[in-house]
Amino acid sequence: MGSRAGRDDSSGFFCLPVLWLLLESVPSFGRETLLTTPVLLEPEHNIFYEDFIKLDIWNKKVLNDTKVSVHYLCSKPCIVTIEAVASLEFRTAVSVFRKKWENYYNLHVSRDRTVNLKFPSSMVFRDDYFIRHSFIVHTVILYAWISHKQAKSSHGPQKEGYLQAIAKDYTLLETVPPFERPYKEHKVCLKWSLEYTWRLQKNRIPQCPYETEAVAVLEFPYASSGERTGIVKKFQKFKNRELESIRKRQTTYPMFTVSAWLYLLRHCKKPLCGILYFIDSEEMYGSPAVFLTEEGSVHIQMHLVKGEDIAVKTTFRLPLKQWFRLDLSVNGGQIEIATVGKNLNKHQHETFTFREDFYYDDASGYFVVGGSSYSSGLEGYFGPVKFYRLNGLSTERISNPFCKQDVMERIDLYYQQCAAIHGMVTEYGFVLKQEEQKCLFRNYYLEMNNKYGRNLKGEAFTWGKEPREKYQSMFEQLQETGLHFLEGLAPEGQKDTVFGIGRRMFEKAAQNLSMAEGLYYIDSSVLSLMESSCCGYHRASYVLAVIFEVGLGMPVDPAQGLLYSLVAAQGGDRLALLNLGYKHYQGINSYPRDLELSYAYYSDVAVKTPPDHHATKGNQAFVEAIRLKDDELLKAQTSENGDVFMWLKHEATRGNAAAQQRLGQMLFWGQQGVEKNLEAAIEWYAKGALETEDPVSLYDYSIVLFKGQGVKKNRRLALHLMRKAASKGLPQAVNGLGWYYHKFKRDYAKAVKYWLKAEAMGNPDASFNLGVLYLDGTYPGMTGRNHTLASDYFYKAAEGGHMEGTLRCSLYYITGTLPSFPRDPEKAVIWAKYVAEKNGYLGHVIRKALNAYLEMSWHEALLYYILSAETGLEVSQTNLAQLCEEQPNVAKGYLATDCIWRYYNFSVYQSNAPSFAYLKVGDFYYYGYQNHSRDLGMSVRMYAQAALDGDAQGFFNLALLLEEGYSIPGHILVHLNIDRTIYSSNTTLLQELYERCWNHSNQESISPCALALFYLHVRIFWKTVSHSTLIYFLGSVFLSAVVILVMQSFQALLVIHPHTPSVPEEAPAEHSSREENTSETRSGEQEQLPLTINSEDALNPQHPSASS
């Protein structure tokens, strides 16, 4: 009993754990609730088989339909995922393929599945007509993973990512470069033209634009005259996303470097002069802003994040008259500034540290080198300027070498040599002034020289033998003129004395050059001009620049010509500034094409032009476009003793209001060959205003009374005359009343009332004045400035020819700060050039050239036309070329360059060139001018441009070239608005060209165009009927009739003159030969016809009429 009982107990105890295990393993059939937990064990507690996944790829290249074998095992219901992630040209971690499937039933069993990878076409195929841009793929990673399928839970979505996977694998695919990929076979048929276009471009490798954070702001020397003009650069946002992201991050923690080569002639005359600075979109100084002070130190201003500005000043001063490099580096709150010499040794250095955060956004405004409307520029020269936008570099790491070394060293040498001349002339002027005060009318210089000889020495001045021999021409000039130098010299100081001496030396040199044999002895004049240049009279510098650049009387020396061009421009000479602006605009004579640099020079002259017009002193004249081909305008030129002037004076004396008005304008502005004479002009203004009450004379006389120009101011009489002129409906007078209330009464409401009325009458001055009110924020009823409305009024004034309005618009185009004026440097240059070429000093040179031509003084005309032509004025260029054609011996005897070829070619690249210049250059390229080879392509371009200007000869020449077998390019026909699909054959194209030629020619007389068109129609008719059988029958009948008629006539002659000897056999041959020669001559004339210029009556260039 006991033993059995004991055995039963032990077996029952053993079964309890087994029963418990069975109960635990049986699934529950009850419904799971929120309060219950699953009875299944967690994976980590009950894994009998290990999950795995493996990728197997035969070809690992990124190709379309790549086959991938996936070998995997799931111990539980699972999700298998395949994903390809690519790193592209501009993006990273881009999912380009993804596929997943679920496995519920095939558990604990390894399985295989093949997957075809499908990538975007732009990743696996080359560019074609449909795939416009194939991506550059850097890396592609193929991921595979297994996630167990869990029961649904309200706690959130199930995580199925790669990082949460039970099993995972990956492999790296090999990328294929774009030009090694295959083309995709599109199931689309292209038009043959589209397919042909694509095939022409399919093998063209696109070049990614090189982008760097280092910007070369200036690479060519720039002469800064100290005016409110400079070089304007605008930085764009980076196209490279990484560079742009760095730039944006550094707006509150700036890191940048600016490096500029400088040559200072003197320190700033005002509190601050601009070196380089940033103007933001709100037209405020941004970071950085670097200025030169009166003491010669550097003023550095930075804009803070909180909106304020902070500035520091260096303890060191910048050196004068030597080249040095100024380096400014910003790293966060630390500013480092240093100067470096030509040998790259650091001279001066200073560091500033700030706790405030700087704000720096170089893409929200524009960068200025030199002066602007907000600051004057420095007086000196800029060398290369470089800007590192994203890096604050130490001086040792900056790469901004001393380039254009020859020119920059010549500038340094020029001022070293001029220092000695300046000192001698200064001392001599001082001695002469002392002599004048003592009333000693003897040559004090000779006495001092004889008395002291070589013993009188000074640092900048010496009377010894060596300087007399070195500067012999200057000493001879000083001895010859003596005390006469003091006549007309201003008593302000030594600088004015030296300048006056330089002016007198230039006048004598120019007089010598203008003589008949003056250019033959040009060497002595060049020495005088050099010394005059050193005395600060920079018209002499410009004349030297032209002499060396064109080779006037001496060999061509471009480097020396560039030196004197820069020196003259720095001295503010208007012609030199125009010359440099033109050369940089066109990119000629080894000058780089730089629109911003061209704008800096043109705007310098343009800013000075309106004040020059109002100045009563100076050698100025009205700029008139008078061509030497226009006989009528040449006959209208006069002088104070000329017939035209005397006739106008006679009529004005009789009370002719128009004659009085015209005389006043001619004398006031210096028009039509008459010298400026302010007093005489005012007399005629007064006579016309007070006697005949001519509205224009009333207005002109009131203006001079308001301003006191040549007459005592009389505001009451001026206002009375202005109102009277306005009552007669003169728009200028209505605008003048607005100006009166604005300037004298400060009544802006009344001023606006008159200006709006005058603006409605079409007065551009009123439009400009309204724009100024909006710009200054003083328009009645409005608060704050309104740049948009101001720019609209400025543009309207510019369209009416207003100079200051045009200059304002050019500034908007160069800065690009307004939506209505997107940045366009070329437009800015064109508009500034328009104003600059109206400068009165240029007009004076043109007038001297024209007067010399009319007086048949060919040497003087050649000299002054060269001076004006080198400024880029088109009228002077074509006139000079014509003068060289008329007087070839004068041109070839003194010019080292081909005058005709050079200036006709210069003129045709101007926007306002006349059609005869295009025809002339077209002939040059057709025939092959002198040493130049033929170029029919250029010839067609020139003839087409003449045709576009409405010249019949242009169409005629194009048609004859077509008849000679030359095909006119398609782009030329597009410019001429000729559709090649309509005029597909040469015959139809010829007919169209001859018809246009006839339409643009004089239709009242028989012209070559009409004859050519008639001959073409005859040829077309003959070609049409020659294919018919009727023409052969009619021809046979006609020939038979002619033969019969000839035989009858011959028989009749034999009956009448039976004893007449027969005609010798040589006569018909001679007759035939004569006919052949005549035929050949006519044929030759016809071949030459398209390339000869029409008579001057066919040319009708537009000439602006002279006006006040």
Strand-residue proportion: 5-15%
What structural class is derived from the secondary structure elements? alpha+beta
User: What best-fitting shape do the alpha-carbon axes yield?
Assistant: globular
The span between the termini is 148 Å
Number of helices: 39
Could you report the average pLDDT, rounded to the nearest whole number?
A: 81
Computed over alpha carbons, the radius of gyration is 44 Å
For the secondary structure, the number of strands is 20
Contiguous low-pLDDT stretches (5 residues minimum) are 1-48, 452-463, 486-493, 1057-1108
What percent of the residues sit in helical stretches (DSSP H or I)?
40-55%
Largest sheet: 7 strands, antiparallel
Explain briefly what this protein structure is:
The chain has 1108 residues and is α+β, with helices and mostly antiparallel strands. Helices cover 48% and strands 13% of the residues.
